[in-house]
Amino acid sequence: MRSRRWFRVAAGGVAGLLAGVGLAIPAGPASAANPIITSIYTADPAPLVVGNTMYVYAGRDEAPTGDNNFRMREWHVLSSTDANTWTHHGARASIATFPWAGADAWASEVEPRNGRYYWYTSVNGRGAGWMDIGVAVADSPLGPFTDAKGGPLISDSTPNSSGLNIDPTVFVDDDGQAYIYWGGYWGARAARLKSNMIELDGAVVTPQGLSNFWEAPWMFKRNGLYYMMYAANDTNGCVTSSSYACQRYATATNPMGPWTHRGIVLGQVSSTTNHAGVVELNGNWYMVYHTANAPGGGNFRRSVAVDRLYFNADGTMQRVVQTSTGPGPGPGPGPGGPPAGTNLATSATATTSYVSSWETVAALNNGGVPANSADRSNLAYGNWPQQGTQWVEYTWPSARNVNRIATYWFDDDQGIDLPASCQVQYWTGSAYANVPGQSSCGVAGNTYNVTTFNSVSTTRLRLNITSRSGFSTGLLEWLAYQP
Ligand code: FUB
Description:
Layout: E1 28-29, E2 41-50, E3 53-61, E4 74-80, E5 87-94, E6 101-103, E7 108-113, E8 116-125, E9 131-138, E10 146-147, E11 169-172, E12 178-182, E13 189-193, E14 200-205, E15 213-222, E16 225-232, E17 246-252, E18 260-266, E19 276-281, E20 284-291, E21 303-309, E22 349-352, E23 381-382, E24 389-409, E25 421-427, E26 432-434, E27 449-466, E28 474-481
Antiparallel strand pairs: 1-5, 2-3, 3-4, 4-5, 6-8, 7-8, 8-9, 9-10, 11-12, 12-13, 13-14, 15-16, 16-17, 17-18, 19-20, 20-21, 22-24, 23-28, 24-27, 24-28, 25-26, 25-27
C-alpha cells in the first residue's frame, strides 16, 4: 500500500483545549471569489441547501507552514444565498462536541430530517483503532450542535467497516429511508440508517461499481437517478501522480447500487486531497471543493472553493471548470453565461480543418464559461497561421436535431481576430449543405453569439469560419442546441 503521509497524524488529545466553539473566529463576511474564505484555512466542504441558503460545513486546517500533518480540531460553517458572497459563522462544532473523541476533526456532512440537522463527522475516538464516525444534532443549520449518540456510530469494531472509517455521506430518500456511505483507503462501505439517524439498520455492505474509489464519497439524487461522487487517485485519466486525487462519479437506479462508473467530474486540484460536494441552489448546480490556492496554502492548509456544475441532457455531468473568480453573479444560463437550452456539443466529438499545435479543438465543447474573448483559462481553439475559411465540426454517433448554435469567439489581439463571417452546415447523409433559414451568423467579441436555423437532423454539424484579411480565427466555446 502506498504511504499517504496525511494519514500518519499523531492522535494527540486536544478536546480540552477547546473551551467552546464559535469564539475564536467571529461571524463575518467572507470573500466573493475562490477561495471563498481566506481568514482561515478550510477543507472537506459539505454543502447543504435549506430554502434559498447554501450552508457549507468545512473542517479547519490549522497546520503551521512546514507541518506536513493534518491539524484539525473544528468544523466551521459558511452560508450564501447566491453562491457568490459568503458569510462565515465561525466554528459550530469541534472535537469537544464529542466527549468520547480526542483529535482529528476530518471530513463531515450535515443531513436534515424532520426539522433537525444531523452532522456526521470523521473524528478520532479514544477507543481501539483510529478514525470513527460520530453524529451531532441541532434544531437549526447553525446549531448549537450536541453529540447525538454518546459514542461513535461507526468504528473499527463495526463489522465489515472500512480500513479507514472517515468521510461519511448521508442521504435521506423520498420514501424516508436513510443511507450512509463512507470510507477511505480504497474501502467504500454502505449501510442503511434507522429513522432515528443515529443507528445502523442492518449489515454494512461493500458497494459495487465505484471504480477506483479512494475516499470522500458524496451522494445525491437528481431526476430519479442516484449519484455517487468520490475521490479517486488512479493515473488512468484521473491524476498525474497518485499522491493527488480527482473526483469520479457513478450513477445507480437503486440507492444501494450497483453503481455504474460515469467518469471524472472534477480534475486534479492543487492540494493532494480532493474532497467535494454537489448541491443545487435556486435552480443552479454547484461543485464545492477544496484546493491549496489561498495565500500560504498547501496540502495541510487547504481552502474551500465553489464553481458551477453543468449536467448534460442524458444526466451525465460535465467536468467542472475550476476558476479563481467563483460562480460570479452571471455565469450559467441567462445574462453573462451560455444561452439556456440543451447543449448537444458536450456529447459530440470535435474535429477541425486545422488547429495550431499549442491550442486544441477540445476547447470547443469543454463547458468553459469565458470571461471575455481573450480568456484562455479553459483552453482555446485557434487556427493561426491559416487564413480564409477553416471549419470546426461536431460528430454524434447517431442523428441529433439541432436548430441553433452559440459561438464565443477567441481574439488574442495578435494573429487571431474575430471572424469576418461564418456559415453553419450539416451533413445530409451524402454531402454538406448550408442549414436552412440561417439567421445572421454573429461575429461579436466578448459574448455568446446565437445563430438560429430551421431544425435539422444530422450526425455532423459544421461551422465554416472565414477570417478577416491578414488574420486567423479561433473559438473559446461552440455550443449546439436541441430544439
Ligand atoms: O481532511 C482530512 C481528510 O483529508 C479527509 O477526511 C479526506 O477526505 C481528505 O480530504
